[in-house]
Amino acid sequence: MTEEPARATHVSLAAVFQVRAGGLQTLLWRRAEAPYEGDWALPGGYLAAYETLEASIRRHLTHKVDVGEVAHLEQLTTISEPGRHPAEWQLATAYLGLVASDVDPAVPSDTGWHPVESLPPLAFDHREIVLAARERLRAKLSYTNIGFALAPPEFTLSELRDLYVAALGHEVTATNLQRVLVRRGVLEPTGTRRESGPVGGRPPALFQFKRPELEVTDQFAVLRPPEASS
Amino acid sequence: MTEEPARATHVSLAAVFQVRAGGLQTLLWRRAEAPYEGDWALPGGYLAAYETLEASIRRHLTHKVDVGEVAHLEQLTTISEPGRHPAEWQLATAYLGLVASDVDPAVPSDTGWHPVESLPPLAFDHREIVLAARERLRAKLSYTNIGFALAPPEFTLSELRDLYVAALGHEVTATNLQRVLVRRGVLEPTGTRRESGPVGGRPPALFQFKRPELEVTDQFAVLRPPEASS
DNA sequence: CGAGGTTTACGCTTATAAGACGAAAACCCG
DNA sequence: CGGGTTTTCGTCTTATAAGCGTAAACCTCG
Q1: Of all nucleotides in the shown strands, which has a C1' nearest the CA of A175?
Q2: Which domains, ranges and CATH numbers included, belong to chain A?
């Protein structure tokens, strides 16, 4: 029995976040065709033959933003509700993308940044995807070094705190942020300090993330194994 | 421009775990056809037209195990490497399934349980999927109440500890396990105690999980917001 | 019926991590 | 040089987890 299996179309989508104007914003483009003509949508598009999902989302992102500016990209989930597209049977694999706050990539005229706090009407199930992506980001800020993808190469603790505040949506004290990140070994001072600005005040020390690859802090593994004694 | 997008085949797969004989084991079946004829493989199969991925994996699991015994099922990731199937362009969405330790579901003759510690040669990329699923399980044991899906409705602390030991692969002290889980409010004593067995010893108290739905402990959100003062 | 063995339960102590707070440091401006 | 501002650092308090020892509750066997 060699029946032909059913084949759905498949798209890759990405919720690309950047902290702008003190808030978390996501990249959207305005659809010019039905369905959902005129609504805003996530960047993405059809998977090409023999193409990897990650290659696909990178290819489609290229049309909306310089993909070199996307500091982090990870798969979230695959959505398969048959009614998610009104006209065809289409699966969607959602990605989370992050852009550092010190760049302002050029985007086409149909594309722009929108605060996640006040999203316009979105096409398909894209609103749910954006909110799920934000939850993933918030969770990972706690137990990984994913903050490196939101921050410039060098930054002061106040600037980093502002990024965390924007992404997490609640206050963060710079003191504790420093201790937590330094203890985990993901943050280190560069040794230099910024020339003080026009407002005065003590010139802040500059910090950087030690490694620009995603790392999970295993410190949150409660019931962890007993220390291997030397 | 209304080009036809490319369409891959799509399968759902599940790494179904159960603690058996003191170790974590996964459900495998032996392939009778090429490719990978004779190798062991994860349960799963083609996605049917207009079928949800979760419905698909449940349908395929039915052929290998009583799906009613699967206490937890969650999506892991979607794999799209074009070379993962030697003959066709096939995507795969992997699931993690858990079966409580007090049941022994009937399985077909081509299907059996295998210790994750010593897997036989597996077809396709199924070995990686099993190991990734185990990592997900281990992580979630620390910050969710997912243990309910591995444990019987009622259990002693020693039994629960044995389940955690088997799943985590390292020692766990019953004292700390109890304190951690009770503090999080996921575990509660039933009030009854088990009649003592033939070995003697103090009869243990019986416990149960409060809620059989997956819950995430937000306690691991470091840098959490300041307490809302009343 | 009591001693010894076994398993569970519980409380005390120690270690570590996080949050709160205030003082000191380092700069600007007038 | 004094006042204002921002950063930095240390300390105190609280919360959580781990280690450990002892008590409790049951069995069996002599």
Answers
A1: D8
A2: 9-142 (3.90.79.10), 143-220 (1.10.10.10)
